[in-house]
Design goal:
eight-stranded parallel β-barrel, binds (2R,3S,4R,5S)-2-(hydroxymethyl)piperidine-3,4,5-triol, 694 residues, globular
Amino acid sequence: MIEINGNKYRLIGRGYSYCFYEEDGKLWHAYYGKDLGAYVCNCDEKGIQSKCSEFGEFGNGDYRLPSITACGGDTMVTDFRFEKSEILPRKPRIGMPQLRGDVETLAVTLRDEFLSLKLTLYYTPYEDGLVRSALIENEGKSGVRLFECASACFDFPCGEYDTIDLSGRANKERNFNREKAASGIKTVSSTRGITSHQHSPFFALLEHCATEEDGDAYGFNLIYSGNFEIKSEKDEFGQIRVVVGEKILHGGIELTAGERLFTPEVVSVYSDSGLGEMSRNFHRLYRKSLLPPRFADKIRPIVINSWESIIFDVSEENLFGFIDGAKGLGIDMVVLDDGWFGKRDNDDCSLGDWVVDKRKLPNGLTAIIDKCKASGMKFGLWFEPEMISPDSDLYRAHPDWALQTRGRDGVQFRNQWVLDFSRKEVVDYVFESMCKVLSENDIAYVKWDMNRSLTDVSNARIYHDYVLGVYSLYERLTVAFPELLIEGCAGGGGRFDGGILYYSPMIWTSDNTDAWSRAQIQYSTSLCYPLQAMSNHVSACPNIQTARNISFTTRGAVAKLGCMGYELHVSQISESEREEIRTQTAEYKKDAELILCGDLYRLRNPFSDGAFAEEVVSQDKSEIIVVYVREQGQPSKGGALPRLRLKGLCADWKYAIGEGGETRFGADLMSRGVEIDVGRGDYASVTLHLKRTE
Ligand code: DGJ
């Protein structure tokens, strides 16, 4: 809901409100937090140096982080003044992924007379979170250089805060980094052209004393898949400013006369009940309004992916054996990963040549797909659409299509360059060649990979247009093949962001499939993203990344907390493992709706508690699943067992623990908890099912 009262604005969602006002032509921030039933202002009257602002500017005496910096004529000082405000029946379409739905939106227009720049700030209050973005328009006759234009700025009154970011690296994506907010500026930013393994466009600001269940927590997530920057600044009074937006790199972007630029949307979520509720708000919002409606809240196929077992050794014989191995295990789809096209015997060639390698598959994909179908499974295929190998027919035909700096040898990672997706003809080519494969074959699923970050980008504009090019390919493919399920991926979980989720309802969470590493990665990924966004596979042991041995049961239990699949040589495993797969897939099918659509409660933090525990509660609270994994075995003889206090149950309902097991009241389960007996050994796990009984 949006309320305007004279110069005061109030945006209201479930449990939160956001207030600001206009005075002397400028916008000032008043309040963001628990809804108090009326407009409130908890920012005292102060001078410009410390007054809470809605969109800080450079050069006006507010020395904290600006939200916009632009340069026109001979000045880099801006002075945006209030022009008008209006309530739009729906959000503007911003030309890139954004939260769905025709939700009422407040548009506040400001103008810098001298630079003839118009700035519109958009505020859309969804039930579960506030969405903001901005539009900058050059209404003048000459160009203006834009160095920065954030999607939003959030000012907080002085207090004791912690921050959380999810910085990581390949195979160790999204660590849970919580620290006390220190004086000065903290930056979370990617300049890799993608969100990346290293940096995630998520940031949380929370009370220092906040926990999973208690305290104020604010989460911010940019819906964008390119360079971004989230900065927080703690000033000399202990106030905090958070500025979130696309990162415009050195040199800025020239906005020519008449040109306009939308910023990506930033989603901000508030919880007065700690991090757990913050995450559930994000999850609800993204399930309802971000994931593609065709797949959101729908059960996803259990896939078996060829990568970790077949690698580049693709052949009809190997694949037939693989399909035979997968048959009858409850697996729904075979996904053929890298190595099926061009002359790709290893990673040094053929990206861009999306034509079946007849040396390996003389009967084309048809023979493989027919075999899958005859075995009761569908078929999916891997692409890396944005790439070009120096050794490829595509490069020989169009050497200028690779991102390169004039006069220099481009930087190669994994023996490949990135295609210049800022050019329409390049995207057209990739679209056409993918379309040919997809329309000539019965392909239900695509894994869209991206195995390197951008280099050799000559200017800031290309970075921006590259991302728009990626979105345009996604858009065209999803329109041309509406039934196609696209799994996002970038060398593991290097592109886990809201922009990709808008098209790909699930993203490969990491190339690290070790169950304990995955427990950590999935735990922190869930701070912002719902379980149904995470693609998790059970793989072989010793694990290919960590060389660790973890039981099949624990591997299955962790993979189950999301879109479960497999990635091992099904034709070479033991009969007992085959039996375990049959059991796991059958159980997953029973539990998938609960897991993918339920509410998540994190009970143990695997980064700090020596154990991982997550609980999913069905929307009607009648069914619960709990997965507990203990990191290191403990001498348990005669000792007390760990207890898990469950969350989110109905206090006066009775629940049976397991099939025909002990029956206890929800209140009891939430206060005394359940004993967890994982037995002996490292990485042992227990999965509990609870159901409401009469
Ligand atoms: C990186 C991905 O994360 C893997 O799963 C696999 O698809 C390889 N690329 C293939 O090259």
